[in-house]
Write a structure and sequence with these properties.
The protein has 444 residues and is α/β, with parallel strands linked by helices. The protein has two domains: 112 residues, Urease, subunit C, domain 1; 291 residues, TIM Barrel (Alpha-Beta Barrel). It is 32% helix and 20% strand. It contains 13 helices and 17 strands. The strands form three sheets. Strands 7-8-9-10-11-12-13-14 form an eight-stranded parallel sheet. α5 runs parallel beside α6 and α10 crosses α11. The longest helix has 18 residues. It is globular and about 65 Å long. The two termini are 20 Å apart.
Length: 444
């Protein structure tokens, strides 16, 4: 497979006007898509033939291939990606039952974080941003640890990577107090400094605090900071197997109290799967009422959760179907790429959608379209991109083209997109070739 990233011109080398012809959208309709500058200007059957000044050499032949808006990864940790290569997976840390469990991952991450430099974080993050783009993602929202172990080094490293790849992708940073606020004296001041230095979104992890009072104080602090900087909120919430951990309800209450509806995302929410039905019904309804987006991360949580169980093992995926049925927007995120928490990951939202469809029992055509929405329009709405996103006149031309003719086939086959465009410019190409019983070549 041949891949190329950072192609800086449109398909034809001409910046003004070009088109994708004979494409199929996810709903099966056959269209041409015409782009002028950064924007889509026309979508419809045969429209490329009716646009003045558009010539054959300005058209990309989709040949019936699937054209999608570029993916949006709304939950990843770019500061941690790739650190697994430097960890001793056989080493045991205090409290760790097994290398690879949560206690091991936390302790190993602490050790790695102490050695971070801005340059090392930037190099690892840049590589994963580029892989995102090759795999069809042009918008990435990254949590970055803000704590007294690493200080602001993770944020500065990811921001440096974002600047280095600004022609390829939009990278948004979330100031994330990985070690807590009350549990990590000094983290509150660092969170303020992170937002002042340019972090875009306020993160949090209230379930990590000791006791309900500290958890509520953590939530209030995060919303105070969001109001101070007029920022959205994106918290890790209840990433645990314990169904009695219930900070999601606190986030719902604070969202409505502060008038932050439509500006809050909660990630993981694993404990909801183990909670009693009465609480689950009430808090799911609260999320719907408050316009909260849930970012589920099955690729990591399937590996990480339930490690202490025997027999019927909990797998850590939140109540995706119940959330969807209640009208709660659900996104899927990559979360981790070869860090202490997760040894896999390819920065591929196509792979994330496939694994998530397995975990959430999404198999019918309508359900598979839900899986597509979870890596496209739902995270785009959480970013409040509005008409700037999608395949419609006026939207920014962030597109990806597959050889497969349908979303179902693209999801099943897992081949990368043939081409990826950001703001009207071609930024990545992939060519997959396969041979069965080749007619020539050396015998092996």
């Amino acid at each position: 497979m041949r891949q190329h990233v950072r192609v800086s011109t449109p398909a034809t080398g001409r910046a003004a006007l070009w088109a994708v012809g004979d494409a199929r959208l996810a709903d099966g309709s056959a269209v041409d898509v015409v782009v002028e500058g950064e924007r889509i200007v026309a979508v419809g059957p045969g429209v490329a033939t009716r646009v003045s000044g558009l010539h054959d050499q300005d058209a990309v032949a989709a040949r019936g291939g699937l054209l999608l808006p570029a993916f949006v990864d709304t939950h990843v940790h770019l500061d941690k990606v790739g650190i697994r290569d430097g960890l001793d997976s056989g080493r045991r840390y205090p409290g760790s039952a097994h290398p690879g469990d949560l206690a091991w991952a936390i302790a190993a991450t602490h050790e790695a974080k102490r050695a971070y430099t801005v340059e090392s974080v930037a190099a690892r993050a840049t590589a994963v941003i580029e892989h995102h783009v090759l795999n069809g993602t042009t918008r990435v929202r990254s949590h970055v640890d803000v704590d007294t172990i690493g200080g602001l080094t993770p944020l500065r490293g990811v921001r440096a990577a974002a600047a280095a790849t600004a022609d390829l992708a939009d990278v948004v940073t979330i100031a994330f107090p990985q070690e807590g606020i009350a549990r990590d004296p000094g983290a509150a001041e660092l969170m303020v400094a992170a937002m002042a230095e340019g972090a875009d979104v306020v993160g949090g992890m209230p379930h990590w605090e000791d006791g309900e009072a500290a958890q509520r104080a953590h939530v209030r602090f995060c919303f105070d900071l969001a109001q101070r900087f007029d920022a959205d909120v994106d918290m890790h919430v209840d990433e645990t197997d314990d169904g009695d951990v219930r900070t999601l309800g606190m986030v719902v209450e604070e969202t409505e109290l502060r008038g932050w509806q439509g500006r809050v995302t909660v990630g993981h929410v694993c404990a909801l799967a183990a909670a009693d039905q009465a609480y689950a019904d009430a808090v799911v309804a609260g999320c719907a009422r408050a316009g909260i987006t849930v970012a589920s991360n099955p690729v990591t949580n399937l590996v990480l959760q339930g490690r202490g169980d025997r027999g019927l093992v909990r797998r850590g995926t939140t109540r995706v179907r119940e959330l969807l049925d209640a009208g709660v927007p659900v996104a899927f995120g990559q979360d981790c790429v070869r860090d202490a928490f997760y040894p896999f990951g390819r920065a591929s939202m196509l792979e994330v959608a496939l694994v998530s469809a397995h975990a959430a029992h999404l198999t019918t055509p309508a359900e598979l379209r839900t899986a597509l929405a979870a890596v496209t329009e739902v995270p785009a709405a959480a970013w409040r991109l509005g008409a700037d996103y999608g395949i419609a006149p006026g939207a920014r031309a962030d597109l990806q083209l597959y050889a497969a003719p349908t979303w179902e086939e693209a999801l099943r086959l897992q081949d990368p997109p043939r081409a990826v465009w950001r703001a009207g410019r071609l930024v990545a190409t992939s060519e997959v070739t396969r041979s069965l019983r080749p007619a020539s070549g050396p015998a092996r």
